[in-house]
Amino acid sequence: MSECVPGPIYYDSHMHTPLCKHAVGQPLEYARMGKRKRLKGIVMTCHSPMPDGFSSSVRMAPEQFTEYVELIESTTREMHGEIEVRLGLESDWFPGMERWLDELHRRAEFHYILGSVHPFIQEYKDAFFDGDLTAFQCRYFSHLADAAETGLFDCLSHPDIVKVMLAESWNFSAGEDAIAVALDRIRATGIAMELNTSGLNKSYPEMNPGPEMLKMIGDLSIPVVVSSDAHHPSRVAADFDSAFSMLEQAGFTEVSFFIERKRSDVLIADVRSSMAIAK
Prior knowledge:
Blueprint: E1 11-12, H1 27-36, E2 41-44, H2 65-78, E3 84-92, H3 98-105, E4 112-116, H4 122-128, H5 133-149, E5 155-156, H6 162-165, H7 172-189, E6 192-196, H8 211-219, E7 224-227, H9 240-249, E8 254-259, E9 262-267, H10 268-274
Parallel strand pairs: 1-2, 2-3, 3-4, 4-5, 5-6, 6-7
Antiparallel strand pairs: 8-9
């Protein structure tokens, strides 16, 4: 008799729509791929609109926000009974934007809000990069903690994404003390952090965060959400098997997800079984 495989229990909680101007495929395509990957659901988290043209080339315009919400709601209805499709948002933290984001997050019934610091956008580089790569790296991690302390977000996305910008000069050891300080501050807020598999396809080919930082996160018992950051339907749940192994090697036994802005923790072993992923 073959072993019984449990029903789906996990979500891929980070993916985009063409409204961000750098993703391909409609939410319906992402949902269908999620069903094929034996996910319980997906959470669409397109890049938040920002005011006054801020980083406008990589996000929806403010006037498209209602279109985004309606797009996800229509996909939720169409896939009802097959896979859950939930509304989320990837919101950029930047100094002075807190009020905008707070008001934006009240405009819809979100299930999940990712907080992101994107150090490679021009506005961030203009404000904080003076040519000192180590100082820039350390400042990024301090800003990650600043984002956590706003209380605006459920989880911090791709939390060492700065290494993608500094691929040729990335030095974990140079920023390790700053990372430790930032993680202590982050832990105190109770926020989760993301293990983002898309980093394997970036200029520094390693998940975000890498194994050293992930071990530090685990030592502080900060919960982790595994996500694909899919910008194409084929990337839904991509490399989750490697991510679960990486978590286990760092000492984790559980992985998290959010529904209705509330965190749930499940055993990695159970998620593996539900997705028919061998250890």
